[in-house]
Amino acid sequence: MSEIFTRDAFAKPLEVMKPIQACCLQDNASVADALGLILEKKIGSILVIDQNRKLSGIFTDRDLMLRVGNTSEALEKLPLKNVMTNSPLILSLKTPISKAFEIVVKKHIRHMPVFLDESQSVESLAMISARDILRFIVECFPESVASHGTTTADEVLINDAHDDSFLEELQQAGSQYLTGNVFSLPLAKVISSPPLFVPPSTSLDVVYERLVKEKTETVLVVEYDTQLIGILTERDFVTRVIGKKLWGQRVPISQVMSQKPKTLMPRHKIAHGINNMFKYGHRHIVLVDEEKYPVGSVSVLEILHFLYHRIYTKSEV
Questions:
Q1: Strand, coil or helix: what is 134?
Q2: Which CATH architecture has domain 4-136?
Q3: pLDDT tens per residue, the chain (317 residues)?
Q4: Does the fold of domain 148-317 match that of domain 4-136?
């Protein structure tokens, strides 16, 4: 019998995850201030405080891409309060992990503020991320996940065949609990949306418009429709595009993409994807087939969505 994770584990309070204190800025601070802090601290979100020292909003790298994006306005003159997400849902240390998990999956939220004590002061604000929830889950499976290690599509695959007892165990588990064997399922089970492919000569402006229109988080950059040469993510926009004078200049996407991303195959295990994400700090794992043709990507949120529906029945979702 493999390792088991029951629903009871999700009844534990967020306190057991030890949320770290959040970075905060006043709402009259500029977007340039926020971008500088995000890059300096290597974080994905900032909490925004009003003049009464109350939480009034949250500003994430997604807000940076969608609400700042290709603006021609100088970031030093753009107030944070104009582009933040207003009135974010606030959790407490007593909030069950199951509630945070549900919010992440159903609302597609990556960052949530948490009060560390009853004072509800600025100093007691912390942050919980989707990545934190995934880490909490996989740390309950030290053998089932860590034992697979990291790998790439260029390395020889281990035998991915499963015997009848493996499949029977997963079937018996149903929606009652997770077993460690679920992390040995192929990454192909997790893919939920088709990828967005563009050639490297496509202009930054065109790619940005497609990202916003199609509500996708990543773009796979391919040559001749077959050769993967890079990936463009929201994080790339934050670190290489926002605040730069690149708009309207016909800048090819090849100049701002992340080159030669590490890849896996759809038949690699979910454990491989998770381990690669944590080791390399990636939100997305690019998938290629046996001929190294790109076929899609898998995100932290997609893995959480898959695990959530393994535990909770459709009637409860």
A1: helix
A2: Roll (3.10)
A3: 467 877 788 899 999 999 999 999 999 999 999 999 999 999 999 999 999 999 999 999 999 999 998 887 889 999 999 999 998 999 999 999 999 999 999 999 999 999 998 888 888 999 999 999 999 999 988 888 988 888 888 775 545 544 444 444 454 544 567 788 889 899 999 987 778 999 999 999 999 999 888 888 899 999 987 899 999 998 999 999 998 889 989 999 999 999 989 999 999 999 999 999 999 999 999 999 988 899 999 999 999 999 998 887 544 44
A4: yes
pTM over 0.85: yes
Dihedral pair phi/psi, residue 113, rounded to 5°:
-75, 150
* CATH superfamily label, 148-317: CBS-domain (3.10.580.10)
Q: What angle do CA 160, 309, 172 make, to 5 degrees?
A: 60
Number of H helices, E strands in the chain: 9, 17
DSSP state of 157: P
Give the span between the Cα atoms of 169 and 266, in whole angstroms. Answer: 22
